[in-house]
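Researcher: Quick sanity check before group meeting.
Model: Go ahead. Protein one:
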Amino acid sequence: MWLSQYIERMNDKADSSLSRMLSVLDLFSDQRLQWSADDISAALQVSIPTGYRYVRMLTDSGLLQRSADSQYTLGPRIIVLDHYIRQADPVLQHGIPFMKELVAQTGLDCVVSALLGQQLLDTHRELGQAPANLSYGRGRPRPLFKGGAPKVILAGWTPTALHKLLDARIHEVAAAELPTEWPEFRRYYSQIRKAGYYLSNGELETNLAALAAPLHHSDGTVAGALSLVTSVQRMAVIDVEKLAQLVMRAAKDISARMP
């Protein structure tokens, strides 16, 4: 009995140490792209030897690399992993031909977005005739309550999941000028779900508009969003209903082909 308990404690300790070591990668952001081993140790509240051990192991694996002045940045292994992610992504495997077709039909940029955990990321973009200058690209998390893509994704959530999200991030909801009372919040997303698409006009970036429709897994759950992006001025002279039909049809075709 004592042996099994001892092994379980050792496993828990190892899992905790691995989790803390991998949390080093979470320290990197647009605001801070370089860290010293000492600063990493302080941020994670671990001893200096432990912090240096984490850095050494991550550097040996290629997840970190040493730069000038004993600073560390994210390593080249992440670029390789991103390549594998692209190759394995079922949305991209089946969706890129339809994205190219949408670009050919409309001349607008076409973007696929996905919710990973509670981070919204653009995963692929096909450029149109006059490519938009997007602040957010592949790998840079986007706000969860502004823009077409996150709204059509959240509209597909169950009421229970949506309610929990509201409770957990109510300050972000308020900052996005969305309803903070549950009945109105639920009604807002229900209307988007019923429409089947959402037009974002200057919400995320004041000069850009996007029309988004949801992508679905075979079981009906939301897999992501397909969007056409252009300037606010150009969207103002486009037949939105016709554009919505094109995007929704492409999203449906992509969804039908995903495993």
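Researcher: Fine. The other one?
Model: Protein two, sequence then structure:
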Amino acid sequence: MHDIFNFLIDLAIILLFAKIFGEIALKFGQSAIIGELIAGIFIGPSILGLVHETSILASISEIGAIILLFEVGLSTDVKEFLKVGGWAVVVAIVGVVVPYFLGYLIFLYFGFSNMQSIFAGAVLTATSVGITARVFMDLKCLETKEAKIVLGAAVVDDVIGLAVLAIVLKLIQGDNVTLGTVLFISGIAITFLILSIVIGILIVPKVFKIISKMKQAHVIFIMGVIVCFIVSAFSTKVGLAPIVGAFIAGLILSTTKESEEINIDIKPVYAFFVPIFFVLMGTNVDISTFNPFVVANKEIFVLTIILFIFAFVGKVVAGFAVLKKNVNKILIGVSMVPRGEVGLIFADIGLKNNVFGLKNYSSLVAVIMLTTFVTPVILKYFINKARE
């Protein structure tokens, strides 16, 4: 009974502070994600010590990550995903390769292991399509050339990033870091992606045709979640993270006529599980790491600042890969900067697989938060300047 009491109180505290800090973040023009992360830091061991991660909370958090990527896939137009413009692909590739090697080299320079450096590079490859899309939407410029290139690039960036994550996870399991290993794992990831989408598109609509005759409430949504969990489970069987399968499941279901109904029904589930994921990530941040008056913190503090600078520059460079006239290259580059939820998931996986200690994890989360904080402000400035 005591454990159940603590569990329920923990959930209540997490959700309460998630909504309070999320609302504050929105008031300051930031994503609610930032507020949820700060809420986790505030109620976690670093400050108030109200909540500590337990195995059951960790499991709920994992479901939150799966639901998050499922919703991202569900909101993606597969036709646009498969037919995205060439410049979007170029921007995505440059926006993955440059930050990856910058993160890798910086970690090596600071004396970290090869594996830690590889994972740090992987964390910096991500781009948050949600944060960028929200800014474009708010400023009513989703139909511009720059917005279309950025949103297409962000989707491709996520897929490449998930493939990179799959490779890194395999390496953690003991595979040698060779070109052959990378190509093999990439092949598995791409094959699983293609086969899952093709098989899913062929089978899922037929299943929904049968399910639609059932009288129970929300049965279409439940079937969608079942598909998500099954594909996520099978992704782990081929050595990929469950979030990869969740993203693929979302892509599959986005092609069905039931996708809109599933998207509507998933909102309350998303609102419950996903904030728990971000708050718990915040509880793992050791805020004392960034106290500049502690001599032992100097190196990690400097690492965070340098990582942030290169994380920013690494994505901005991608905008200049567009060799096309009458396109605002700096606007495209800045739009790719926020790491958001995908970067946080990568960092969390690194922590849970003991690649990082709490200090290194805290540094990476701080960099992700900073890129997410500053981008909307800078982006609004460049968009308004372009309109003058």
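Researcher: One line on it for the slide.
Model: The mean pLDDT is 82.
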